[in-house]
């Protein structure tokens, strides 16, 4: 059992996550120092930003004596799996609305194995999450609503703590975004500490500029927030062979496993920007490894074709 701020949680959580320097010839050549915040090491299944996002939501649920977490996600959602695992560890019930037709893939199977009840929901109904919640759980006094991806002020609070853990200030921080909640939290943390760090966000989805207004709902935006919306590879969870090969090469060159939905796009973008001399000599750059390595499962067959053996590095979808 580990003590996390406000409450006791019966789960092995590794915090603060380590910061490591990454050495690649390109970084030397450009006179840059590149570091990674290893949030992927926080927990194998409640990984990366997902624990930070859930932490204060769980605190709130427990305080309000709600013991049934109800949340939302796509068929390969890292958030669903994280919620299922955290619920089980905390002795809570968990239900999830899964977007789209009924499928069973390794991630959803793992959610079930951890005791989560799945409700497959057509895309139209899925849009109105509050309506779904009240239709199914309106009479359940113990049900606790958690928005898709955990998006909430509580999640922003949890993600802001990442900044307080850093050993020193960086010139640039890079972070991938889906809902933008994690980025909003990191930005909040930067502001709270009064740092002169520039936050760069790489949206994992198409037309990602809208994230600017999402983030502005949580924090006051200034010039030090930059969106790089052109590294989405066609849209959310879309990946080209080039991107998958990049993920394989990154692992070979650095020993750090990433996935194509978020961190692959983030690093592909970062490398391009470095090659285009976007940074000053001497700059220190930190990228956040937001974890989500179970998302690799969605690309297992493609990876098997590209690089036999690579899939052996995948995270087993079982309790540790
Ligand atoms: C969920 C997830 C994100 C997106 O986080 P948001 O707070 O929704 O922007 C980024 N990276 C990984 C690996 C994720 O699993």
Q: What layout of secondary structure does this protein have?
A:
Layout: E1 2-4, E2 7-9, E3 19-22, H1 25-29, E4 33-37, H2 49-63, E5 68-73, H3 78-89, E6 93-99, H4 106-113, E7 117-121, H5 123-127, H6 129-137, E8 143-145, H7 153-164, E9 172-177, H8 181-192, E10 198-203, H9 211-216, E11 225-227, H10 241-254, H11 263-275, E12 284-288, H12 300-306
Parallel strand pairs: 4-12, 5-6, 5-8, 6-7, 9-10, 9-12, 10-11
Antiparallel strand pairs: 1-2, 3-4
Brief account:
This protein is α/β, with parallel strands linked by helices and 320 residues long. Helices cover 37% and strands 18% of the residues.
Total helical segments: 12
Cofactors and ligands present? Answer: pyridoxal-5'-phosphate
Span of the ends, CA to CA = 15 Å
> β content, as a range?
15-25%
**Structure classification:** alpha/beta
- Report the order of strands and helices: EEEHEHEHEHEHHEHEHEHEHHEH
Main sheet, how many strands, which sense, barrel?
Answer: 6 strands, mixed
- Strand line-up of the largest beta sheet: 3-4-12-9-10-11
Q: Mean pLDDT score, rounded?
A: 94
What general form does the structure show?
Answer: globular
Low-confidence stretches: 1-6
**Rg from C-alpha positions?**
19 Å
Report on this model:
This protein is an alpha/beta fold and 320 residues long. It has helices at 25-29, 49-63, 78-89, 106-113, 123-127, 129-137, 153-164, 181-192, 211-216, 241-254, 263-275, 300-306, and strands at 2-4, 7-9, 19-22, 33-37, 68-73, 93-99, 117-121, 143-145, 172-177, 198-203, 225-227, 284-288. The protein has a six-stranded mixed sheet with strand order 3-4-12-9-10-11. A four-stranded parallel sheet has the order 7-6-5-8, with helices on both faces. Strand 1 (2-4) and strand 2 (7-9) form a beta hairpin. Helix 2 packs across helix 7, helix 3 (78-89) packs parallel to helix 4 (106-113) and helix 7 (153-164) crosses helix 8 (181-192). The longest helix has 15 residues, at 49-63. The model is unreliable at 1-6 (pLDDT under 50). Pyridoxal-5'-phosphate binds next to helix 3, strand 9 and helix 8.
């Amino acid at each position: 059992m580990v003590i996390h701020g406000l409450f006791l949680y019966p789960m092995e959580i590794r915090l603060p996550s380590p910061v490591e320097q990454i050495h690649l010839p390109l970084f030397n050549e450009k006179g840059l120092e590149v570091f990674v915040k290893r949030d992927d090491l926080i927990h194998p299944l409640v990984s990366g930003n997902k624990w930070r996002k859930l932490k204060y939501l769980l605190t709130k649920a427990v305080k309000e004596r709600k013991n049934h977490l109800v949340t939302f996600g796509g068929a390969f959602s890292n958030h669903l799996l994280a919620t299922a695992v955290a619920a089980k560890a905390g002795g809570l019930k968990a239900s999830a609305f899964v977007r789209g037709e009924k499928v069973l893939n390794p991630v959803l199977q793992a959610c079930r194995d951890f005791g989560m009840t799945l409700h497959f929901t057509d895309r139209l109904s899925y849009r109105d999450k509050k309506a779904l919640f009240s239709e199914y759980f309106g009479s359940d006094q113990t049900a606790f609503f958690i928005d898709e991806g955990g998006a909430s002020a509580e999640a922003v609070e949890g993600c802001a703590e990442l900044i307080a853990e850093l050993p020193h200030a960086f010139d640039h921080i890079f972070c991938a975004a889906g809902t933008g909640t994690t980025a909003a939290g990191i930005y909040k943390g930067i502001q709270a500490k009064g740092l002169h760090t520039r936050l760069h966000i790489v949206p994992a989805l198409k037309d990602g500029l809208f994230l600017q207004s999402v983030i502005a709902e949580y924090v006051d935006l200034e010039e030090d927030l930059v969106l790089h919306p052109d590294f989405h590879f066609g849209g959310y969870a879309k990946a080209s062979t080039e991107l998958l090969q990049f993920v394989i090469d990154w692992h070979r060159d650095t020993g750090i496993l990433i996935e194509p939905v978020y961190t692959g796009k983030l690093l592909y973008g970062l490398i391009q920007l470095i090659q285009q001399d976007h940074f000053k000599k001497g700059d220190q750059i930190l990228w956040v490894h937001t974890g989500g390595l179970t998302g690799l499962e969605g690309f297992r067959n493609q990876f098997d074709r590209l690089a036999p053996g690579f899939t052996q590095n995948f995270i087993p979808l079982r309790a540790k």
